[in-house]
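New here. Your pick:
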Amino acid sequence: MFDLYIGPNLWATVDMQNLDGNSTSEEILHVPSSDSLQICLVKNEGTTPFISSLELRPLGNDSYITQFGSLKLVSRGYYTTSKNYISRLSPSSSLTYISTTSDVSDGGNYNIPKAVGQKAAIPTNASLSLLIQWTPESSNDQYYVYLHLAEIQDLQANETREFSVFLDGNRLSDPIIPKKFEITSMQSLNPRTCGGEECSLKLTRTQRSTLPPLLNAFEIYRVIQFMQPETNETEVVALKSIQDTYKLIRINWQGDPCVPQHLMWDNLTCSNTTISRPPRVTSLNLSSIGLTGTIAAAIQNLTQLEKLDLSNNNLTGEVPKFLGNITPLLFINLSGNDLNGSIPQSLQSKGIELLLHGNPRLCQTKSCTKPQSKDFPVVIVATAASVIILIAVLVLVFVLVFRKKNQYTAMQAQQMPPNMPAVVNIENANSHEPLNEIKRRMFTYSEVIKMTNNFQNSLGKGGFGMVYHGFVNGSKQVAVKVLSQSSTQGYKEFKAEVDLLLRVHHTNLVTLVGYSYEGDHLALIYEFLTNGDLKQHLTGKRSRPIINWSSRLGIALEAALGLEYLHIGCTPPMVHRDVKTANILLDDNFKAKLADFGLSRSFQSGIGYQDSTAIAGTPGYLDPEYNHSGRLGEKSDVYSFGIVLLEMITNQPVISQTSENSHITKWVSSKLNCGDIIEIMDPNLRKDYDSNSAWRAVELAMSCANPSYSKRPSMSQVINELKECIMCENSRLSNNQGLESRAINIGLDSSVVPKAR
């Protein structure tokens, strides 16, 4: 038994134990995301994988069209009594096989073999349907099935062959009349799932038909959604170039370099990844492996490299300048080689930890860069005199500035609240912004009064104080959050929010414009979003039309992207802790942004949660596990997001004061038992939504709101599922729900042979 991978994604598991000497094959329709394709055979349970042949067949863009994902072959079959065909179906007493020697043309884009079109099967009992039954591997499996049909009998004037296709009792197409001696290939535009544990496909003759249904061939594919993106293609090419340059022989330097993580190449470290962000190489360690030649130029294409170790090899030549152009690079070890020349200025000025010992011919001082001039005594004397004068001036300026600063700091410290430092420690805030940028965002209290017109226009109450509308520079609208002096945790929360917002930047997170602190007056200045918060729109407090289903899904996706950034895009990762519809703000174009980070806290990467002594959040949205134990993690936010999604779906209150099922999850659970999506959806939507999209959204929301912390999905998984919901809804809006003249969708199991019933 062994596994097949396409790049970093599991394609299939091959079990050779029960084949009794027979062969097996796996087939997939896949669109590569790069110019290369990697098929990997991976050991499973200690066995040695093997392969007899690998065949690649290019296909045009006009066949096997899908909405998403790759297609794994489940079964392919056609009807013949000959044993010379691999894909033939075993004879069945309920079917009669027919054939013709006449030419049968292919009217589609599927290149059906001539021999396939010349043979077909019909029910032996002409009054019965042609029935195909199968059991899906999972209730969520989605299938594309292609039917290939051609009339190969000469029909009399009073004979008609017409039939319909049904899946689990639901008709999939208008009545079909196969064309005479011409293959018509039929497929639906959307994948199909089965409603129960068993799928049932019927080809049933219509009332006006005098002949039974006919089928020449079929193909069945299961949709596979490959969730793991491949390593950045430029970096893959760079690593292969490095491998070729140094003639490296590494057993596991095959397949994708970074993913899956348990198969990562030796000597590499890669960044974390999401469905929308491919992994990047952050560390390359090729020390003590006998490298010769110069430092490979391909290293410069590893643009996210943070650590490079080429020590204890036999490298020659100069230290290349391009190493100084790799922005994230913080550590370079080139010791124990035979490098020469001087160190590039770009490396000396970046503050990189640079290890160079053991390179006797490498000049590590500035004296070797240029020969000294013959008149050096004059230059030295003049330079020394200039330096002495400059130092004297600087000392005088420093004394004056320091005296003035001490006076200001002492005065300011008297005005500060006892828990607030006189100076904000920017380094402790982990901000990557330059100091002058942070100062530019600092406002005086008088400027805050001016921008809010003396706090005249209140927007409501925020996480720890009132929020006011204002203007910066007379034109830019802002929301000013003023710290409530009655808040016992106010100053601590204020500093936490400043520290956080100064280092968090994402298109779906509210931007911090500036802040102010003077004595007891503390304020945060945010960008102002004109369309208010999502809760106002759901409850009808905004005099605007109801947000339609498509827009709700878009808002949910954007909010999820903001949360995903907090969880995996920040270092260290962060938890919001107060995700709710009132904290999802909407701009002019109804683009969603998460607000109110006053309750956010960092948590240690790799642990997934931490204990917090201060319970924070909003009743109804708060993770029940956290509410009782103080257990805090990214999936606490996932729970809150699930409640938000249920609120968007149902427009029901999160906590009802009148219903027996007081919490929204209980209300939805009671409606799920009815099996009617209309009972769950917001009636204001007037049934204007794709039911499949709605069901998937409900299932996703309930999965997020699972009482068990470990059973909830990650935000990356949530984002992927929301994209699927949006695609279903977009398909409906594009009028693509019906069947094309050449397409029908069904799904089968390869172990089941069609029969008549």
